[in-house]
Amino acid sequence: MAEQKVEAIANPSEVIPTVGLPGSLTREQVEFYWREGYVVLDRLLDESDMAPIKEALSFKVSKIAYEMLRVGKIKDLLLSEPFETRLARLFEGLSDADFLAFGRSWRDRHPGYFQFMSNPRILDAVESLIGPEIFSNPVYNARPKVPRVAAGAVPWHQDRSYWPGANANPVITVWIPLVDADEVNGCLQIWPRTHNTELVEHHAETYSGTAYTEVDIDDASLQPYKKISAVTLPVLAGSAILFNDRCIHMSTPNNSDRVRWSVDLRYQPTDQDPMTNHGVGFLCRSSSHPDRVATLDDWLEFRPERSS
Ligand SMILES: O=C(O)CCC(=O)C(=O)O
User: Number of structural domains, the chain?
Assistant: First the structure.
């Protein structure tokens, strides 16, 4: 990221007076985000930032391995296999259904998730876009994109299609790969400027076994965007891609022999719909009420704010 930090801009016409936070965006990045609908932050996080979530995911992989051993799907827990390959090796030769039995994406209440979602660099970046009153949306996912599993590929969609009725506009997705993501293992692809659409007609796809939502590509509202090419965004581990919940995006299958681990987190201003039908989010930053920011204990007990 460039050295110079500037005022954060909540929307193209409003300037918020926050400066110089370690993860904050430059003016150019903020302007790019509002114009194109996304922004890439190269290596926003380092290994120590990613350690808590990797620990949470390694714990889950071990639980899965023990369960697979118990039911006779595997003979070896592969304890010495590294984070990048263990889950791939565990599922080698098994079916998509074997993998899907543990969920296509995971949303556990493990402390590592909370620590990761509260990472100051992530929140600084989000603050640059929406200001310092930030609510962590209940929809967060860790994605173990295992090689050659159909559910690893995600079709063109708007996140908003998962919460069409929510009065939360816009929710910002922060997508972070925990390993280098590229065209071989299925990095993210974005269709620029489609954040200017409303909710596009969509349907549930039928080929991955998980019924992802998929935009109706011939919907008339997409016609003006057909002349804009999609961008493929290979990024290094710890980078972040921020986009809003109307920005159309997808990812291709994982054709490598390693797991394409990623996490997608979501944030919104505190005055928006907390979307409690999707779970319990939490107040993760507030300059007006710092005393109300949820602690780990609050989060583990499903309280959106600090209990006094
Ligand atoms: O991680 C992926 O491959 C897709 C992510 C995605 O669609 C999302 O975060 O909304």
Answer: 1
127 touches 17 (CB < 8 A): no
For residue 26, pLDDT beyond 80: yes
CATH number of the domain where residue 245 is located: 2.60.120.620
User: CA 6 to CA 177: how far, in whole Å?
Assistant: 26
Q: Tell me what percent of the chain is helix, strand and coil, each rounded to the nearest 5.
A: 30, 20, 50
What is the Cα–Cα distance from 32 to 29, expressed in whole angstroms?
Answer: 5
Which tens digit of pLDDT belongs to each residue from 54-69? 999 999 999 999 999 9
State the DSSP H helix or E strand holding residue 227, giving kind and residue range, or none if neither.
Answer: none
Give the confidence band of 18 by pLDDT, cuts at 50, 70, 90.
Answer: low
Ligand 1 centroid vs 105 CA: distance in angstroms? 10
282 lines ligand 1 (CB under 6 A): no
Q: Is residue 26 part of a domain?
A: no
| pTM for the full predicted model | 0.93
Ligand 1 centroid distance, CA of 29 (Å): 21
